[in-house]
Amino acid sequence: MEAVLPAKWAPLAAGVLAVVLIVVVALILRKVAHRLITQVVRRASSGTGGGLAGRLRGRQTVQPEGLDAVAAERRRQRAETIGSVLRPLASILILGTAGLTVLDRLSIPIAPLLTSIGIVGVAIGFGAQELVKDFIAGMFMLLEDQYGVGDVIDAGAAVGTVEAVTLRITRLRDADGRVWYVRNGTITRVGNESQGWSRATVDVPVAYTADVPAVRELLQRVAEEIWEDSAFRDIVIVEEPQVWGIEQISDTAVVFRISAKTIPSHQAEVARELRLRVKAALDREAITIAG
Amino acid sequence: MEAVLPAKWAPLAAGVLAVVLIVVVALILRKVAHRLITQVVRRASSGTGGGLAGRLRGRQTVQPEGLDAVAAERRRQRAETIGSVLRPLASILILGTAGLTVLDRLSIPIAPLLTSIGIVGVAIGFGAQELVKDFIAGMFMLLEDQYGVGDVIDAGAAVGTVEAVTLRITRLRDADGRVWYVRNGTITRVGNESQGWSRATVDVPVAYTADVPAVRELLQRVAEEIWEDSAFRDIVIVEEPQVWGIEQISDTAVVFRISAKTIPSHQAEVARELRLRVKAALDREAITIAG
Amino acid sequence: MEAVLPAKWAPLAAGVLAVVLIVVVALILRKVAHRLITQVVRRASSGTGGGLAGRLRGRQTVQPEGLDAVAAERRRQRAETIGSVLRPLASILILGTAGLTVLDRLSIPIAPLLTSIGIVGVAIGFGAQELVKDFIAGMFMLLEDQYGVGDVIDAGAAVGTVEAVTLRITRLRDADGRVWYVRNGTITRVGNESQGWSRATVDVPVAYTADVPAVRELLQRVAEEIWEDSAFRDIVIVEEPQVWGIEQISDTAVVFRISAKTIPSHQAEVARELRLRVKAALDREAITIAG
Amino acid sequence: MEAVLPAKWAPLAAGVLAVVLIVVVALILRKVAHRLITQVVRRASSGTGGGLAGRLRGRQTVQPEGLDAVAAERRRQRAETIGSVLRPLASILILGTAGLTVLDRLSIPIAPLLTSIGIVGVAIGFGAQELVKDFIAGMFMLLEDQYGVGDVIDAGAAVGTVEAVTLRITRLRDADGRVWYVRNGTITRVGNESQGWSRATVDVPVAYTADVPAVRELLQRVAEEIWEDSAFRDIVIVEEPQVWGIEQISDTAVVFRISAKTIPSHQAEVARELRLRVKAALDREAITIAG
Amino acid sequence: MEAVLPAKWAPLAAGVLAVVLIVVVALILRKVAHRLITQVVRRASSGTGGGLAGRLRGRQTVQPEGLDAVAAERRRQRAETIGSVLRPLASILILGTAGLTVLDRLSIPIAPLLTSIGIVGVAIGFGAQELVKDFIAGMFMLLEDQYGVGDVIDAGAAVGTVEAVTLRITRLRDADGRVWYVRNGTITRVGNESQGWSRATVDVPVAYTADVPAVRELLQRVAEEIWEDSAFRDIVIVEEPQVWGIEQISDTAVVFRISAKTIPSHQAEVARELRLRVKAALDREAITIAG
Amino acid sequence: MEAVLPAKWAPLAAGVLAVVLIVVVALILRKVAHRLITQVVRRASSGTGGGLAGRLRGRQTVQPEGLDAVAAERRRQRAETIGSVLRPLASILILGTAGLTVLDRLSIPIAPLLTSIGIVGVAIGFGAQELVKDFIAGMFMLLEDQYGVGDVIDAGAAVGTVEAVTLRITRLRDADGRVWYVRNGTITRVGNESQGWSRATVDVPVAYTADVPAVRELLQRVAEEIWEDSAFRDIVIVEEPQVWGIEQISDTAVVFRISAKTIPSHQAEVARELRLRVKAALDREAITIAG
Amino acid sequence: MEAVLPAKWAPLAAGVLAVVLIVVVALILRKVAHRLITQVVRRASSGTGGGLAGRLRGRQTVQPEGLDAVAAERRRQRAETIGSVLRPLASILILGTAGLTVLDRLSIPIAPLLTSIGIVGVAIGFGAQELVKDFIAGMFMLLEDQYGVGDVIDAGAAVGTVEAVTLRITRLRDADGRVWYVRNGTITRVGNESQGWSRATVDVPVAYTADVPAVRELLQRVAEEIWEDSAFRDIVIVEEPQVWGIEQISDTAVVFRISAKTIPSHQAEVARELRLRVKAALDREAITIAG
C-alpha cells in the first residue's frame, strides 16, 4: 500500500481501512452473538439437558402423556420470547461499541457525545429500574417455567387464568371476567393451581349436642359414596376423600372437616358436590347443623 | 481555500467550516431520528406485524366487527402520544451533543458548563425518577394497549371509567362522579372490566331448615327464565346462567350461588335482576331466607 | 488594541475583554431564557393550543358558560407559579456557568471550590430528593390542572376543600375545619369531586318478609317526587333518580339502592333528603325496615 | 516589591501575598453571605412582600386583630431559627474552599486529604440523608408557617399541642400528657386544628319506630336553644347549628346528625353540651334512642 | 543542612524531615480536635448557653428543685457518650490523612491501597447506612435530651421504662418485664410519659334509661371526694378532676367521661381508684351500668 | 529471539508472545479457581469441620440414625448447586480480565468498549439487584441448611412442603395442592416445621358453671389414655400430653388447654384425635361446652 | 548490588527486591492486624473494662452467682464469632493491596483487572447490601449481648427460645416446635423475656351486679394464699402478687386485674395457677363471672 499511494494519503487510507475492518468485525460478532443466544436459550428452555435450565427449574413434574406436543410448543415459544429481548441487546452493545471506536479512530471527539448520552442515560436509568426488573423477572419465570398460558395462578395482585405471558407482564382473566395486567417484577411469589392436584376442603359445623361418632360415620359414608360415583372417581377425584375429624371446637359449633384430592382446578366443583351430599345426609339423619 | 485566504485565516475558516458541518449533520440526524421514531411507533402500535408490539401485547382479542375504525383511531392516537415524547428526547440528545461539539471545536471551555449542568442535573435527576417511571410505565401501557378511553378499569388507587390516558397519568371517573388522576408509575396491576365478558354472581343464603333439592330446582328455574327472556338473552347475557350449588355452609345459613356470563360491564345490572327474581320465586314457594 | 497598549499588558487586556464578554453573553442568555420560560409556560397552561399542555391534560371538560373569566385567571396564576420556580433555576444555571468560566479564564483554580460545592451538594442532594419530587409533582399537577382553589378533593392523606396550591404543598380544609398541608410529592392519586357531576347513593335495608315489588314501586314513587320537586330538579339533581333494585341479600336484610346524579359536591345533601322521604314513605305504608 | 527583596524570595512573597488575599476575600465573602442570609430569611418569613415566601405560603388568613405582636414575634423567631442553620453552612462552604485553595497555593498535596474526607463523607452521607431531610422539611414548614407553638396539630405520628418547633423536630403534648418528639422529615401531612374554625358533629341514633319529623323538629329546637344561649353564641359557636337530617339508615338505627361551627379547638366541648341537651330533650319527649 | 550532608543525601533528609513534620502536625491537630470536641459537646449538652443546643432542644421545662444534681450528672454522661464517638472519628480522619500524605511523600504508590479500601469501603458502606443512621439519631436524641434513664417512653416498637441509652440503641423494660433493645434509627417519634403531667381518663357507660343530670351530679361528687382525699390531692392528682359530660351516644350506652391530671406515670393508678369509687357510687344510687 | 528475527518484527513477536502468555495464565488461573471453589464449597457444606460452615449453621441437630445417606446426598447436591453458580462467575471475571488485557496489549482502544459495557451494565445493574439478592440469600440458605426437599416450611408468602430449592427460588406445595414459587430474597424469615418435634395444642372452652377440678381431672384422664394408646405413644406422640390448666377466662367461657409433643408435622393429626376424645369424654360426663 | 550485577540486570533485581519487600511487609501487617483484632474483640466482649463495649452495652445486670462460668464461656464464644469475620476481612484488604502493588511494581497493567473487578463488584455490591447489613447487625447484637442461646426472645418475625446465634441469622424454636431462621438485619427491635423478671397478669371479668369490695377482698385473699404457698414463694414468684383493682368497665363486665412478678419465663405458669385459684374462690363465694 505504501508503494501505491503518495505518502500524504497513507494515514487516510489506513483510517478507511481500520473503519471498514471495525465494521466487518462488528457485524460478524453480532451474527455470532445472535446465534449463540438462540442456541443457549433453546437449550436452556428445552430442559432435556441437565444444564443451567434444569438446575434453575429444579423439577421433574410427572406430566400426563399426550402433552408432549403442547410442552414442545410452549418451550419453543419461551425460547423465542427470551431471544427476542437478548438479541437486540447484544446488537446495541456490539454496534454501539463499533460506532464509538470508528468515531474515535477518525479523531472525532466523542466526549461531548458520551456526556449527552450519559446525562440522558442516568436520568432515564433511574426511572427504568422497574422496567429492567420486570424483564429480568419475566425471563427467569419463563426459564423456570413457573406457569404457562391456561394455568390458574395466584399472582398476589390478582388470581385467574393466564391468558398471555410476555417478558414485562402477565395477563390474567379472573373468575369475574376482569382482565388483569400484572408487571412481572411485582410478583414476588406465584401460586400455580394447575400442577399435579388440588384439594377440596369442606368444613361442616354441627351443634354441640350432636353425637360425634354418628356424625363422623355419616360423613365417612358420604365420602365413600362420592368415591364410588363413577362420575367423580378417577375423573375429577384422584384419591378416596377423607374425614379428618374435629378441626375446631369453636364457641358456636363443633367443626368437622372432609378433604378430597382432585385433578387440578376442580376443587371448587368437588367441594360443592360434597356440601350438597353432606347437607342431604344430615337432613336424612335429622342432625342439626350449628346454630 | 488555502489559495484564496491568507494563511493566518486558515484555522478560523476551518473552524467555521467544521461548525457548519456539525450543525448540518445534527439537523439531518434529527430529521432521520424523528422519522424513524414515527415509523417504529406506528408499526409498534399497529399490532398487525408480528414484531415487538405483538410480542409486548401478546394477545389476539376477538373483537366484534364494526370496531375496526375505533381501533384504528385508538392506534393512531397511541402512536401520536408516544411519538410526542420520544421526538423531543431525540432532539435534545442530538442537538445537545452538537452544541457541545461546536463549543469544544471553538476551544471554548465546556468543563464549567458541564459542571453546572451536572450538579443541577443530579439534583433534579434524583427527584425526577418518579416522573421517568411514570412516563415509561405509560409508554408500555399504551404499547400493550392495556386499556383505552371508555374502558372500566381497576387501577388499584381507584376504580372507574377511563376518561383520558396520557403518558404520565390516567384519568378515571368513578361511580360516584369523582374524577381520579392516577400516576401511571403507581399502577402495578390493572384490571380491565371491558374486555370479552363479565360474570354476575349472586349469593342466596337460605335457612338451615330449607329443603336443599327444592331450592336448587327453584334457582335453576329462575336461571332458565332469565335466559329465555328476550330482553336479556344474547343482549346482555351471553351464556345460560348456572346454579353452582352450595358455596358455603356458614354458621348462619346455607349459601347457594348463581353465576351468569354477561357482556362486559353489565354484570351489576344482571345480578340485580337475578336477585329480584330469586326473591320473588322464594316468596312464592315460601322458602325462608337465612335468619 | 495591540497598537495602543504595551505588549506586556496584552494578556491582561484580553482577559478583561473575555470576562466582560462572558458576563454580557450570560446576561443576554438569562434574559432570553426568562422570556422563553414565560412564553412556554403561558402557552402550556393556556390549553388552547394542541401542544404539550393539551396532551398532558388530555381533556375537554364541558365547562358551564360564565366560568371563562375564572378559568382565565386560574390559568394566569398557574403560569405565574410555575414561572416563578423555573426562572431562578435558569438564572442559577446560566450565572453559575458564567462565574466558573470567568474564574477559569482568570486562571484562578476552581477545583477546590468545586470540591467544596460537590461535597456539600451531594450531602444535601440526597436529602433534597423529596423536595424536588414535591416541586416536580406540583408543576405537573398545575400543568394538568388536576384541581384548583375551591375544589373538593381526596388527596389520600386528607379530604377537603382546596384553599391554596403551591408547587410544594396543597392546603386543604376538611369538613371538621382542620387545615391540612399535604406535600405534593406524597399525593399519588387525586380524586376531584368538583368536576362534572356527583352521585348520591342511598341504601335501604328492608326486612326479608317485605313485599319486594311493593317496596320497589314505593321507592320509584319517592324518586319521581323528588325529581318533580322544583327545589331539586335541575337545581341540584341533574337526572331523574333511579331505583337500582336489590343490591344485596345480606344475612339480615334485603337491601335496595336508589341513585341520583347531582351537581358536584351536593350528593350528601340529596342523599339525606332521599333518606328522609324514603323513611316517611315506608312509615306510611307500614313496611318494616330491616331488624 | 521586586526592588526590595532579593529575587529568590520573590515566589515566597507572592505565596504569602496570595494566601493573605485568599483569607481576606473569604472573610469578606462570609460576612456578605451571612448578611444576605439574614435579609433573605427575614423577608421570606415576614410575608409582607409578594415574594417567594408569599408564594410558598400561598395564604391570606384573616387573623383577629391584636395578634399582630404575637405574629411579629413568631416571624422573628422563625427567621432566627432558619438563619441559625444557613449561616454555619455558608461559613463551612466559604472557609472550606479558602482552606483548600491556600493549601493548593502552598503546593501542599490535598489529594490524600480529599480522599480521607471523601471516604468518611460518603460513609456518613448515606446515613445522614434522614437528617438533611428533617432539616429541609423543617425549614419549609417554618417558611410556610404551617403551625406554631400553641397550635393543636395532627402530625400523623401524634396529635397534640405544639410545644416547640426546631428545624429537626416538632415537640407536641397530647391529651394524655405524653410529650411527643416527631422528626419533621417523617411528617408528610399536617392537620392544623387551630386555624379559622372547627366543627362539632353529633350523631343521634334513634329507633326505627321513632317519628322522623318529630325527632327532626326536636333536634332543631335543641340547636336553636344552644344558639340563643349567651354562653355559647359568638363565644364558642360561630354559626347557628344545623340539623343535617338522616345520615344513615343502618341495620340497628336511624342516625340523625347535628353540626355546629365553633371557634378553633372547642368542638369537643360544644359536642358534649349538644349531646347532653339532646339526651335531655329526647327523654322529655320519651323518644327511644336506638337499641 | 546543605553544608553538612553530601548532596546525594539531601532529598532523603528532606523526605525524613517532611515525614516527621507531617506526623507532628497530625498529632497536634488530633489533640486540638479532641479538646474542641470535648468543649463543644459539653457546652452543647449543658444547655445553659443559648447556642445550638438550646435551639436544638428548644424547651424550657420547669423542673422541680433538687433535680439539679441528677440533671448535671445526666448532662455529663451525655457529653461523655457523644464525645466517645466523635473523638475516634476525628482521630481516624486526621491520622488517615497524615498516613496517606507520608506514603505519598515517600513516593510509595497509594493508588492500589486506595482501590482496595475503596472497594471494601463501598461494599460495607452500603450495608452500614443503618448503623450511621442509628448513631446520628442517637446523637441528636441525646443532644435534644428527649428522654433519659428512668423515663417511661413509647418508642413505637415498644413501650416501657428506659434502662439504658447508648448511641446505637435504647434499652427499655416493659410492664411485663420484657427487656427491649430498640435501634435509635428506627424510632421516628418518641412519646415521653414522664414529663410534666399525665392524664387519667375514665369512661363510664350507663344505660339509655339512666337519668343524665343525676349521673352527672353523682360523677361530680366522686370527682370532688377524690380531690378532697389527702392521699391523692397534690400527692398524685395535681388538679381537681373534671366530669367532661357525655362523650358518646353509642348504640349500646350513653358514655360519660371523667378526667384527672396526675403527676407523671401515675395515671393508671388514679384511673383504677376512680373506677372503684364510681362503681361504688353507682351501686349506692342503683344506677344501671350499660348492658 | 532478537537474533533470529529482523528488528522491525520484534515488537510484533513480543506482542504475540505476551498475548499467548496472558491466555495461558488466564486458563490456568481459571482451572485453579474452579478447583478451589469445588473444594471450599464441599467443605463448607459438609459441616464436619468446625470451619465457616459450622459457624454459619451453628447447630448440632440430633438426627435419627439411618438418615446419614440422605444427609450426605443432600450435602452433595447443595455443594453442586452453589458451585454451579460460583464457577461461571469466576470464569467471567478471569477471562474478562484476560480479554481486556490482550486488547490493551495490542493497542486496541478499550475505552469505547468499556463505555458501552458500563452504560448497559449500570442500566441492568440497578434492575438486577433483586436477582443478586435472591442468589445470595439462596446461597446462604443452602450453606446454613435451613431447609431441604420434603420439609414443611412457613416462608411467609406461602406455607407448604418444599419440592425444590434452587439458588433463586424455593418451590413449595401447600395443603390445597397449589404450587408456590417464592424468590429466596423475599424470604426474611423461615419457619421449619420438620425439625425435632411439633406441639399439638387443643383449647377446650367450657361453660362458666362447669366444675373446674372435675374438668381438669377429666382432661387429665384423656391425656393419659392417648399416651397409653399404643397407636400413638412413641409413634407420633413423644411425651405424655399435659393439661396446662385455664388459659383464659374469656367473656363467654373458661378455656382449658391440653398440649402434646409429637414427631414433626403430625401435630394436626394428634390435635384432631385429642378433640374427638375430649368431646366424647365431656359428653359422657354431661359437662356443657361453652355457649 | 551495583557492583555484583551487570548494569542491565539492576532494574530487575530492584523489582524482585521490591516485590519480596512488599510481600514480607504485607504478611507482617496481616499478622499484626489479626492479633489486634483478637485483642480488641476479646476486650470489647469481656465487658470488664469501661471501654467501647461497656458503652455499647450500657448495662450492669445483676446476675445470680454461679453464672460466671457460663457468662465467661458466652463471652469467649462471642469474641470468637466476631473475630472469625473480621480476620478474613483484614486479610483480604492487606493481601489485595499487596497484590495490586506488586503487579503495579512489575509494570503489569492493572486497569483491566480493576475494571473487571469493579463491574462484578458493583453488580454484586448492590445485591449484597442486605448481607452486610445482617453481619453488622449481628456483630453489634453480640457486642451488646442482647441475647444468648437459651433466652426466650421476641424477634418480631418470630417468638421463641434462641437455639443459635451466628453473625447472619438467629435461630429460634417457638412454642409449637417450629424452628425459625431470622436474618439479624431484619430485626429492628428485640424483646428479651429472660432477663431479671417477668410479670403474670390475670384479668377477671365479673358481672355488673357483683359486689366490688367483696370481689376485691376475695382476689386479695387468693393473692396472699399463693404467696404463702411454699411451692411458689421465692421459687417462681418473687414479690407478693397485687390486686390492681378495676382495669376496665367494659360494656359486658367489670374487669379486675391481678399482677405477680415471677422469675423470667414462668409468667404463663403462674397466671394459669392464679386463674385456677380465682375461679375456685369465686365459685365458693358464688360470685358470677361476667356473661
UniProtKB/TrEMBL annotation, chains A, B, C, D, E, F, G:
<feature type="transmembrane region" description="Helical">
    <location>
        <begin position="84"/>
        <end position="103"/>
    </location>
</feature>
<keyword id="KW-0812">Transmembrane</keyword>
<dbReference type="GO" id="GO:0008381">
    <property type="term" value="F:mechanosensitive monoatomic ion channel activity"/>
</dbReference>
<dbReference type="InterPro" id="IPR011014">
    <property type="entry name" value="MscS_channel_TM-2"/>
</dbReference>
<dbReference type="InterPro" id="IPR049278">
    <property type="entry name" value="MS_channel_C"/>
</dbReference>
<keyword id="KW-0472">Membrane</keyword>
<keyword id="KW-1003">Cell membrane</keyword>
<feature type="domain" description="Mechanosensitive ion channel MscS">
    <location>
        <begin position="131"/>
        <end position="191"/>
    </location>
</feature>
<dbReference type="Pfam" id="PF21082">
    <property type="entry name" value="MS_channel_3rd"/>
</dbReference>
<feature type="transmembrane region" description="Helical">
    <location>
        <begin position="109"/>
        <end position="132"/>
    </location>
</feature>
<feature type="domain" description="Mechanosensitive ion channel MscS C-terminal">
    <location>
        <begin position="201"/>
        <end position="288"/>
    </location>
</feature>
<dbReference type="InterPro" id="IPR006685">
    <property type="entry name" value="MscS_channel_2nd"/>
</dbReference>
<dbReference type="Pfam" id="PF21088">
    <property type="entry name" value="MS_channel_1st"/>
</dbReference>
<dbReference type="InterPro" id="IPR011066">
    <property type="entry name" value="MscS_channel_C_sf"/>
</dbReference>
<feature type="transmembrane region" description="Helical">
    <location>
        <begin position="12"/>
        <end position="29"/>
    </location>
</feature>
<dbReference type="InterPro" id="IPR023408">
    <property type="entry name" value="MscS_beta-dom_sf"/>
</dbReference>
<dbReference type="InterPro" id="IPR045276">
    <property type="entry name" value="YbiO_bact"/>
</dbReference>
<comment type="similarity">
    <text>Belongs to the MscS (TC 1.A.23) family.</text>
</comment>
<dbReference type="GO" id="GO:0005886">
    <property type="term" value="C:plasma membrane"/>
</dbReference>
<keyword id="KW-1133">Transmembrane helix</keyword>
<dbReference type="InterPro" id="IPR010920">
    <property type="entry name" value="LSM_dom_sf"/>
</dbReference>
<feature type="domain" description="Mechanosensitive ion channel transmembrane helices 2/3">
    <location>
        <begin position="91"/>
        <end position="129"/>
    </location>
</feature>
<protein>
    <submittedName>
        <fullName>Mechanosensitive ion channel protein MscS</fullName>
    </submittedName>
</protein>
<dbReference type="InterPro" id="IPR049142">
    <property type="entry name" value="MS_channel_1st"/>
</dbReference>
<dbReference type="Pfam" id="PF00924">
    <property type="entry name" value="MS_channel_2nd"/>
</dbReference>
